[in-house]
Amino acid sequence: MSDRNTGLEDDEEAGAVIRTVQRQLKLWRESAGLTQAEFGAAIGYGEEQVSSVERGRRIPRPEYLDRADEVLSAGGRIAALKEDLAEVRYPKKVRDLKKLEADAVELCAYNNSVIHGLLQIPEYTQAIFDARRPQFAEEEVDQQVAARLARQSILDPPSGARVFSFVQCESTLRRPIGGRMVMRQQLGRLLKVSQWRNVDLQILPLDREENSGTDGSFRLLKLKDGATVAFSEAPLSSRVMTDPKETTVLDIRYGVIRAQALSPRESLAFIEKVLGETKT
Question: Is the pTM of this model over 0.85?
Fold first, then answer.
């Protein structure tokens, strides 16, 4: 079993939660009269892992807290800490994005390199992070995959609370990330989501003479208060924009890209065609 480094120096919110949890765990262990080595042996962890958790260097996994609760006869009080750690387990930028997405009434996204994160299946997401160079550590890959998939809760199952519009460049359907079997499952996921009433999914074919999205992927979040937040994605960094002068430019660009793409109905047939080609 492994936990991830917390990175508390860059995240005060997470740091405060984790410090509270580490103090509670240490107090419960000491009250039971157990050394770190004895406690680790009882719950199936090494002494070094227990020490790292109690020093706040690692975030304990849910199963760690469950075993600690059982061994220390805490009556559910330690296991309840899982709720406090559920959100701070993910990087701050992911938590911030998730909060914005939860507050949005409309989400629009254009992608020309990979399938949008909200539409990805776990195997596809795993393959993306496994392919990163320089490589992520195994713990970091697990963290990044879990964080991305956790954001999908706003989309699945579908509800009328918000509207989604996705435009995917055809190249993202044909790039076999994770291998042919994974891509077949991923295309199947797109077919399913594209039929939900609150989702418009469009494909921008490669044979289009005009493509206003060649500058790269971006997304727009239209919030309940009427404000718009834009994200422009690039290697090593993603730029967040709130200035209406900038968000309006991307809003206009997205409208043009949607007009250049196939209609949602045509796009559904196009995805089915590509899926059929992967089976031959």
Answer: no
